[in-house]
């Protein structure tokens, strides 16, 4: 967190905790559907929740990775696995809220990843890529671990929403927008695009 | 090795060499079963033997990764591949010894990973996670490379044994136990849990 | 690039750009065959083109990874995806040229990876391994992302060609050959072995 003004590190910490918990739920639910045991549930929850940030930190060189320095991050991932173990039927029924939460997680992690990359001095394009990787990397590993083609490759307008939000963060950074405004705008754009795409079934063109 | 007192680095070196060779055998045997050629055998042996440690080193920031600094590590992985290429029938028949060796490798790598993470100043929970990743990461990559769901997710009480051993290492570290005692206790607990679980078919609860 | 004399960094930059574009094509073509959308095409192109170098940089500790510092690398990967989106039928028909280009990419990346590892002070065996990883890592991730067993494990004499070229680079380095001669010899050997193996259907022995 030393790359952020102290005032905002609190905000980022909360965003991270929430994003980790949400993505952890998605990993744990997949584990339940694949009939994995309690340990498998926690492994998939942790992978989905923390792998994106870990890849980001290894690629930009912020080591030990943030998930290793912040015990609360691991605790949040662990908690999501335990939550699903006991309440997966409840969560299964609440499909709409889960999709909403997943969109929020996508927005939060996009902003966290892009902002950190910019703070490490990366170029706009690289920062945007790191934002997308942070937001989508956990889900990719989650799906690969149960040998499914990652949802980010199958699902329309998922990573594209992250790329758009990351682009807005980069723009706000270049124009010196206030940091909280930039963060909210980036996350809001990502969430909005994702929700609109789900609602109206938007699709990206394929090669003919 | 510079993070360990010189006296113990010899011990750790031997543990690593043995663990790499054992896990290398598991990778090479899988390659033979999948009818891969000699090169594929060596690739899977190397992946199974060294990926766990490489992931650990990238996440904690000990670079170049130990497997790149110690030519003997690569030599050990290579040797396991060649061994299997020539003697895979012999090894196939010796199923019980191989399972025993795999349990030993699990214990050794758990202790090596957890200890190194503690030496790098990680928190107990993070050190334990790194221990599990070191012990299970190679097998995960091995299985993913032939598009199987990693054994650590399918097999009962595998990573849990590593987590328990890692926890004991963390405890010994906190209580200032002698380093060799801590190492033996951690590896012994991991091996014992793994062997008992196999012998009695212990299972971890699933979500209903 | 700061690990190379300024005179050669231009050469390496061009080699990298060409190699990234070629491997990007291979990733994008696979995405088209799997009926992924435009975004999936760009993701697979980027993964195939840059993952090998990113793994190399994370393992040797050159961070942020080169692909993050050089916007032109990302641009080249992006361009390959766009090329395939519009012209994939043309490329599909030109199977022979694509195989030739893939062999060239293999040679170029082997030399780039091995040379950089030597510049970072790695041992000959480790440098050779990094060369193979740089050349084959992108293709491995590309195939894993669509849950196929990586081509490098199925295809005869693919990574072996990279290992041979990397070995020659290590030899040239040890004997103080001129850097350009070493690079050309390493890339040429890799390309030649790969093309001869394809032309004559050379195979590597399997375990009986």
Please describe what this structure looks like.
The structure is a homotrimer of 208-residue chains. The first copy, chain A, is mainly α and 208 residues long. Chain A has one domain. In chain A, 80% of the residues lie in helices and 0% in strands. Chain A contains nine helices and no strands. Chain A has helices spanning 6-33, 38-60, 66-69, 71-93, 95-119, 124-145, 151-154, 159-174, 179-200. In chain A, helix 1 (6-33) packs across helix 4 (71-93) and helix 5 (95-119) runs antiparallel to helix 9. The first copy, chain A, is globular, with a radius of gyration of 16 Å. In chain A, 56% of the residues are buried. The model of chain A has no long low-confidence stretch (mean pLDDT 90). The interface between A and B is medium-sized, with 34 and 29 residues. Chains A, B, C: It is a multi-pass membrane protein.
Order of helices and strands of chain A: HHHHHHHHH
Contiguous uncertain segments of 5+ residues of chain A: none
Largest interface: A-B, 34 and 29 residues
The proportion of residues in beta strands of chain A is under 5%
Number of domains of chain A: 1
> Would you count the extended β strands of chain A for me?
0
What spatial form of chain A do the alpha-carbon principal axes imply?
globular
Overall mean pLDDT of chain A stands at: 90
First and last CA, distance of chain A: 46 Å
User: Please, how many helices of chain A?
Assistant: 9
Transmembrane segments (chains A, B, C): 12-31, 38-60, 72-91, 124-145, 180-202
Organism (chains A, B, C): Pseudogemmobacter faecipullorum
Protein name (chains A, B, C): Trimeric intracellular cation channel family protein
Domain Glycine transporter (chains A, B, C): 14-89, 100-173
């Amino acid at each position: 967190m030393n790359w952020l003004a102290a005032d905002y590190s609190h905000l980022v910490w909360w965003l991270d905790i929430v994003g980790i918990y949400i993505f952890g739920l998605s990993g744990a639910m997949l584990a339940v559907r694949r009939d994995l045991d309690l340990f498998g549930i926690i492994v998939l929850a942790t992978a989905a929740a923390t792998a994106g940030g870990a890849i980001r930190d290894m690629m930009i060189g912020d080591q030990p990775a943030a998930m290793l320095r912040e015990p609360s991050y691991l605790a949040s991932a662990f908690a999501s696995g335990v939550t699903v173990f006991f309440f997966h039927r409840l969560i299964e029924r609440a499909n709409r809220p889960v999709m909403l939460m997943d969109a929020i997680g996508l927005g939060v992690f996009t902003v966290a990843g892009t902002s950190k990359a910019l703070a490490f001095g990366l170029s706009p394009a690289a920062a945007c890529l790191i934002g997308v990787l942070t937001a989508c990397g956990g889900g990719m590993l989650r799906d690969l671990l149960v040998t499914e083609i990652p949802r980010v490759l199958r699902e329309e307008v998922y990573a594209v929403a992250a790329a758009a939000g990351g682009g807005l963060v980069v723009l706000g950074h270049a124009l010196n927008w206030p940091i909280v405004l930039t963060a909210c705008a980036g996350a809001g754009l990502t969430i909005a695009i994702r929700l609109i795409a789900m609602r109206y079934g938007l699709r990206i063109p394929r090669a003919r």
